[in-house]
Amino acid sequence: MEVSDSVTSTLTKHLTNKVLAAHKPAIAEEKEKLDERVQTIIQNATQVYKGYVDDLRNTDNAWIETVAMHFHDETREILGDIEFEVDEGAPCVNWQEVSGHINLDASHSFILHKVAELRDANF
């Protein structure tokens, strides 16, 4: 994320790149439809957490801060059929089942717990 970028523009850029890279649309019409779907899911996103996260890279002089957004597509009509391209070493975009049984870092578990609360679901 660049300093001048908003969370929305960064999400749009990142999510669109992951979706397009996985689908490699052959024609501009397909790309436009995918762009519209990405915009729809981002416009309906909910900010779940913003702030400091516990991370092994944190030091006394530098630390990680994050913004966690929740995208919910319960009917799978917007992006439910989309597979994301996974890059080693790059931020990962994927669908995640909310469950207390997933082995995650403490900060990720905290964020998914907040999503479960938001959706009035068990965790």
Largest sheet: 2 strands, antiparallel
**Helix and strand run:** HHEEH
Number of helices: 3
Radius of gyration: 16 Å
Structural class: alpha+beta
Distance between the termini: 30 Å
For the largest sheet, list the strands in their spatial order.
1-2
Mean pLDDT: 76
- Strand elements, count: 2
Low-confidence stretches are none
Multimeric organization: single chain
**What is the percent of helical residues?**
25-40%
How much of the sequence lies in strands comes to: 5-15%
The rough form would be described as globular
Write the layout of secondary structure elements.
Layout: H1 7-23, H2 28-43, E1 46-52, E2 65-70, H3 106-118
Antiparallel strand pairs: 1-2
Notes on the protein architecture:
Its EC number is 3.6.1.13. The structure is a single chain. This protein is of the alpha+beta class and 123 residues long. The protein is built from three helices and two strands, in the order ααββα. It has a two-stranded antiparallel sheet with strand order 1-2. Helix 1 (7-23) crosses helix 2. The mean pLDDT is 76.
